[in-house]
């Protein structure tokens, strides 16, 4: 930092740890997505939208989502050269923010053509509504994939119809950032007879996704349970694959990133990223604790608890004969990975409880650890699994 001393910087102008965690997740997701798409023949064009891109660079020198996205695209281009068209759409209603972002990219990447960058200073909600309306059109260009990083200042303009329209074409993915603790704190008030005007937007949002009588509208619940309810509801009755990444600001304030996709393989890649980022407290970003001695112990306990819960669910699912494709989809849609299925199947196989057959010949297969739980098995299953008590 050169223009200001640290003491002169306002706290609101620096990037706080929870904001860093949010942008870090977005950057890692974007890197994985672009690396995959670079060698995917079915995608010829990628559009990345950041309609609330902010100032670009904070007073403490840290960069925000707009700069990180450009950096990521540049790195992927160098790592895996491709002639695919990539367009980065950066928008913020504040024209000074857009000017700062444009100036930074121009200064730090002179003559660099990692991607096309379109800078706009529109009302973000109107911009997104126009895009949603466009995605609803019957004639859509094939081979074009859209990525939306939606980091609004709250949730007032987020509507189910808007999200469904963005996702309806099947060629879009969304990262949506929401202020969970604020929403959680005022939900019961929003559905009370004494609801105040300020809580009406929250009531409208939740009414879009939760029917009358749903516990989220009538009962006190823990913040994590609240996030899980939202994650399930955002799937819009199973039309989309959704997961969430909680982000803790402090002991009393929690946010979350919600990911939407219609592509099961892409969804698995994001889940894999989440599992790798898991810390001692479970999924999500948590503020560092002063006492770190027992972190590894607590993390292992948490992992064991989650895996046991999954084993119980999988046991119930295996009350009928299943294909390897069935098992893959069951794992991923429940937030787990193929490796977690393999771990359970291996135990059952060693205990003599599992019978595996070739789907075509019906032959019982004796070879150990040949489970083939993978995305390809969803369309082309070739094994049958039967669990015997």
Description:
The structure is a single chain. This protein is of the alpha/beta class and 389 residues long. The chain has 14 helices and ten strands. It has helices spanning 17-38, 65-79, 95-108, 124-135, 160-167, 180-190, 200-209, 215-218, 223-233, 264-276, 295-317, 324-333, 338-350, 376-379; strands at residues 45-50, 85-91, 116-120, 144-150, 172-178, 241-250, 253-261, 322-323, 354-358, 383-387. α1 (17-38) packs parallel to α2 (65-79) and α1 (17-38) packs across α10. The longest helix has 23 residues, at 295-317. The protein is globular, with a radius of gyration of 23 Å. Mean pLDDT is 88; it is low at 1-9.
In short:
44% of the residues lie in helices and 16% in strands. The protein has helices spanning 17-38, 65-79, 95-108, 124-135, 160-167, 180-190, 200-209, 215-218, 223-233, 264-276, 295-317, 324-333, 338-350, 376-379, and strands spanning 45-50, 85-91, 116-120, 144-150, 172-178, 241-250, 253-261, 322-323, 354-358, 383-387.
Distance between the termini: 66 Å
Spatially, the strands of the biggest sheet line up as 3-2-1-4-5-7-6
Q: What is the beta-strand fraction?
A: 15-25%
Rg, Å, rounded: 23 Å
Fraction of helical residues: 40-55%
Structural class designation: alpha/beta
Biggest sheet architecture: 7 strands, mixed
* Molecular shape: globular
Provide key terms for this protein.
single chain, 389 residues, alpha/beta, seven-stranded mixed β-sheet, three-stranded antiparallel β-sheet, 14 helices, 16% strand, globular, disordered N terminus
């Amino acid at each position: 930092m050169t223009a200001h001393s640290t003491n002169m910087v306002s706290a609101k102008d620096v990037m706080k740890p929870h904001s860093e965690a949010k942008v870090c997740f977005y950057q890692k997701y974007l890197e994985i997505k672009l690396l995959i798409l670079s060698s995917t023949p079915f995608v010829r064009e990628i559009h990345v939208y950041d309609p609330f891109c902010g100032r670009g660079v904070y007073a403490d020198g840290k960069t925000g989502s707009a700069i990180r996205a450009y950096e990521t695209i540049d790195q992927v281009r160098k790592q895996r050269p491709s002639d695919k068209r990539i367009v980065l759409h950066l928008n913020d209603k504040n024209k000074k923010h857009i000017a700062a972002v444009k100036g930074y990219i121009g200064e730090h990447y002179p003559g660099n053509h990692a991607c096309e960058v379109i800078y706009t200073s529109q009302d973000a909600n109107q911009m997104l509504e126009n895009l949603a309306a466009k995605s609803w059109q019957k004639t859509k260009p094939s081979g074009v994939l859209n990525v939306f990083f939606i980091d609004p200042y709250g949730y007032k303009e987020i509507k189910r119809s808007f999200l469904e329209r963005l996702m309806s074409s099947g060629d879009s993915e969304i990262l949506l950032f929401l202020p969970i603790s604020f929403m959680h704190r005022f939900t019961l008030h929003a559905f009370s007879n004494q609801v105040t005007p300020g809580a009406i937007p929250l009531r409208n949002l939740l009414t879009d996704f939760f029917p009358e009588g749903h516990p989220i509208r009538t009962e006190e619940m823990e913040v994590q349970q609240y996030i899980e309810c939202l994650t399930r509801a955002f799937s819009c009755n199973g039309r989309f694959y959704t997961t969430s990444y909680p982000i803790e600001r402090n002991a009393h304030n929690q946010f979350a990133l919600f990911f939407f996709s219609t592509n099961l393989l892409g969804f698995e890649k994001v889940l894999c990223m989440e599992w790798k980022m898991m810390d001692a407290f479970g999924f999500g970003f948590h503020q560092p604790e002063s006492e770190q001695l027992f972190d590894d112990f607590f993390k292992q306990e948490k992992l064991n608890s989650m895996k046991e819960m999954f084993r119980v669910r999988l046991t119930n699912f295996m009350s009928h004969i299943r294909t390897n494709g069935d098992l893959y989809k069951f794992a991923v849609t429940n937030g787990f990975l193929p490796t977690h299925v393999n771990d359970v199947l291996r135990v059952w196989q060693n205990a003599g409880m599992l019978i595996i057959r070739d789907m075509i010949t019906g032959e019982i297969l004796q070879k150990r650890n040949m489970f083939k739980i993978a995305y390809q098995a969803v369309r082309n299953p070739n094994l049958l699994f039967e669990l015997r008590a």
